[in-house]
Write a structure and sequence with these properties.
- The complex is a heterodimer.
- Chain A is mainly β.
- In chain A, 0% of the residues lie in helices and 52% in strands.
- In chain A, strands 2, 4, 5, 6, 9, 12 and 13 form a 7-stranded mixed sheet that branches.
- Chain B is mostly beta strands.
- Helix content of chain B is 0%, strand content 45%.
- In chain B, strands 1-9-8-3-4 form a 5-stranded mixed sheet, with no helix packed on it. In chain B, strands 2-7-6-5 form a 4-stranded antiparallel sheet, with no helix packed on it.
- In chain B, a hairpin with a 5-residue loop joins strand 6 (61-64) and strand 7 (70-75).
- Chain B is globular and about 40 Å long.
- The termini of chain B are far apart.
- The chains are: A mainly beta, B mainly beta.
- Chains A and B meet through strand 4, strand 5, strand 9 and strand 12 of A and strand 4 of B.
């Protein structure tokens, strides 16, 4: 069964450093997402991406964040200058479709295993 | 966006049926009800989705009354491996892309 993969599984970095988190979405999916989960807290939406551009971003996704699909398979999240409060699990997700159309709803997103980011 | 309310935690024993109820009083006509499961240190996983009445798959059943102001996720004969956080989600965000997670229900299954 196809699955979303993420690398690395754990990233440790110093405050102020740049990090790039990588994801390989499921190959025939069209929508890509990043979420984060601070330890003990709920899963929070960061950004959605479709047709090589950002569809939507949350308030968390400020100028220090960027996303890119550099080739046909990878989807990356870059944090330009990490802060202590960026420490969290970062989940990539993908879906073939999204939204609601007529009687159909496309709320199934496939999540990767996550990257644990620790900022020291 | 419709707000959901579900119990913070539930305890059960192996072999029992577990029912987790979620209230969503201001659900919109177009909203679907979706449940996700999350194991520790893993990403959420889609379990089931429904609009009204009852939906059943190989993992769970979802019961939705006629007024759709609540829903119940039913897990038959739980095992230790069903210990997880269960999230009830109603609607995507207004743009129709992001899943909006609450705090979920932490289900603990004991032997």
């Amino acid at each position: 069964e196809p699955e979303v993969t993420q690398t690395p599984s754990h990233q440790v970095t110093q405050m102020g450093q740049e990090v790039i988190l990588r994801c390989v979405p499921i190959s025939n999916h069209l929508y890509f997402y990043w979420y984060r989960q601070i330890l003990g807290q709920k899963v929070e939406f960061l950004v959605s991406f479709y047709n090589n551009e950002i569809s939507e971003k949350s308030e968390i996704f400020d100028d220090q964040f960027s996303v890119e699909r550099p080739d046909g398979s990878n989807f990356t999240l870059k944090i330009r200058s990490t802060k202590l409060e960026d420490s969290a699990m970062y989940f990539c997700a993908s879906s073939p479709l999204t939204g609601t159309s007529g009687t159909n709803s496309y709320n199934e997103q496939f999540f990767g295993p996550g990257t644990r980011l620790t900022v020291l | 966006l419709a707000k959901t309310t579900q119990p913070i935690s539930m305890d059960s024993y192996e072999g029992q049926e577990v029912n987790i109820t979620c209230s969503h009083n201001n659900i919109a006509t177009n909203d679907y009800i979706t449940w996700y499961q999350q194991f520790p240190s893993q990403g959420p996983r889609f379990i089931i989705q429904g609009y009204k009445t009852k939906v059943t798959n190989e993992v769970a059943s979802l019961f939705i009354p006629a007024d759709r102001k609540s829903s119940t996720l039913s897990l038959p004969r739980v095992s230790l491996s069903d210990t997880a956080v269960y999230y009830c989600l109603v609607a995507l965000n207004q743009a129709g892309t992001a899943l909006i997670f609450g705090k979920g229900t932490t289900l603990s299954v004991s032997s």
